[in-house]
Amino acid sequence: MTEPTDQLANSEQAWYASLPTVYAAAAAVFTDAAGRVLLVKPNYRDHWSLPGGIIEHGEPPHVGCAREIAEELGLDIEPGPLLAIGWTPPEGDRPRAIVHWLFDGGTLDPGREITLQEEELDDYRYVEVTELAAYLPPVIAHRLTAALRARTSGTTAYVPVSSQSSGG
Q1: What domains does the chain contain, in order, with CATH numbers?
Q2: Is the pTM of this model over 0.85?
Q3: Which of 58, 73, 78, 150 could form a disulfide with 83 if both were Cys (CB 3.0 to 4.6 A apart)?
């Protein structure tokens, strides 16, 4: 005979297993003293992006951001304020929505050494805000622009993408 507490535990496990899930990623927004934004060129994509990546199972977003920045750029940082949260619906080969956390990485000094993770990144550069659309897919450019506005205003932006206007 199954104990009542076992039945409750099993029903809770079944309930949690039935809930929808999302993918999660975190990135840092870095600028230089001139206000240009640091972008990286992943070798597995045809466009530039922000430094950061997928959060590991059970990892808080700010911890995942710091880990990804250490792995990708060789920088030991404590992410600053949360600038933006982006949500993008399932699309193409990605069967689940993805949530992106963008944290303030601060302003990097000109002499700050960046060591790229060669397995994933080919290059980095600082890009003028007015030129971001030439480097980034629209969904990332929109999210980044909202994050930069939030950085100036001291707020956090919520940047959902509808399934009709998605793009990455």
Answers
A1: 21-160 (3.90.79.10)
A2: yes
A3: 150
